[in-house]
Design goal:
Rossmann fold, globular, 322 residues, 11 helices, binds nicotinamide-adenine-dinucleotide, alpha/beta
């Protein structure tokens, strides 16, 4: 008996990378899967309808249930069609995994409006659009319970500054905020909303990232994208108690993220601060260095002197004429 027996799951961006692994693993755990993917390039251009169909076919060949859908998560009507596809093909919808992704890396001073908008559209609007249509379905159903949404965020935007990835980091931080807002709003319809934050999973998006080694032969692979799928399945399973949480996944390590929290504060009684007074009072605040914090985060993969290594990488990225 599988942990997702009888569940119907819609997984966006399920044609490749982590989403593909989620589709295969969910199906192996007994879920019926809508494999959504328009098969675009890493930058979100072009399209190949065969990408989603290939995964659906692989699931069916292994004895599972799956249908392909090639809609774009940024398309409002497309997001509605994905939900309809699940209900028409399998009679219900229990789980949405918002996983679709594109990337357009660029230093802020060179980033175009389109590069910013396109990334926000896939990650943030796409997560909203698909969740919104699924939530409408669950609300209209009236008696739904134990439904689950699993969003996908990133260390970029939550734990790291996302250098040359301002668009991506902002989108992912937005998805984390949307996760907690939806968790509160949708609880009344029996829906839990959580997020996974993958890290160092070997996909086309992480090609060339320092620390990504080649696929090991035959041994356990801590960079395998399937490791995120197992965590997503746990959040999607009936009876999972978590709601409004973000789980960072690196290899087999699963860490509950705390999100923003209040730090030290200063207060003045009964009158507004003058600029001089507030500047003086704020000397009590610890001086934080986002670059040092980022270097500490990725320290293991950068080795000794990681702050200097990261500084050199940042310099190279920012002086790249792109
Ligand atoms: N790989 C990692 O280590 C890592 C780290 C942090 C976060 N993530 C997140 O994990 C998720 C999966 O990333 P991945 O590395 O597997 O990427 P990937 O590029 O391998 O797969 C993403 C898939 O999304 C699809 N897609 C793109 N635009 C779409 C759209 N508009 N509608 C529907 N599908 C669309 C693509 O066609 C592609 O098949 C993303 O949300 C990504 O931001 C990955």
């Amino acid at each position: 008996m599988g942990s997702l027996d009888g569940r119907v799951a819609l997984i966006t961006g399920a044609g490749r990378g982590i989403g593909r692994q989620e589709a295969l693993f969910f199906a192996s755990e007994g879920a019926k899967v809508v494999v959504n993917d328009p098969g675009v390039t890493p930058e979100g251009t072009g399209g190949d309808p065969g990408v989603a169909e290939a995964v659906a076919r692989e699931i069916r060949a292994a004895g599972g249930d799956a249908v392909a859908n090639t809609d774009d998560v940024t398309d409002w009507d497309g997001a509605r069609r994905m939900v309809e596809t699940a209900v028409e093909a399998f009679g219900d919808l229990h789980v949405v995994v918002n996983n679709a992704a594109i990337q357009r890396r660029r230093a802020l001073v060179n980033m175009t409006e389109d590069e910013f908008d396109a990334v926000l559209a896939v990650h943030l609007k796409g997560t909203f659009a698909v969740t919104r249509w699924a939530a409408r379905h669950w609300r209209d159903q009236g008696n739904s319970s134990d439904r689950a949404v699993v969003n996908t965020v990133s260390a970029s935007g939550l734990l790291m500054p996302g250098i040359t990835q301002g668009n991506y980091a902002a989108a992912k931080a937005g998805v984390a905020a949307l996760t907690t807002a939806c968790a509160v709003e949708l609880a009344r319809y029996g829906v839990r909303v959580n997020a996974v934050s993958p890290s160092m999973a070997r996909t086309r998006l992480t090609e060339g990232v320092p620390g990504m080694s080649d696929t090991p032969d035959g041994t356990f692979d801590p960079l395998h994208p399937a490791l995120t799928a197992h965590v997503a399945a746990c959040l999607a399973a009936p009876g999972c108690p978590l709601n409004g949480q973000v789980l960072a996944v690196r290899g087999t390590s699963v860490t509950l993220l705390n999100g923003w929290s209040a730090g030290k504060s200063v207060t003045k009684d009964g009158a507004p601060w003058t600029v001089t007074e507030l500047s003086e009072a704020m000397t009590a605040f610890p001086r934080r260095d986002p670059l040092a914090e980022a270097a500490a985060m990725v320290g293991g993969s950068l080795g000794e002197g990681n702050r200097d290594t990261l500084l050199a990488m940042v310099d190279t990225m920012l002086t790249d004429p792109r």
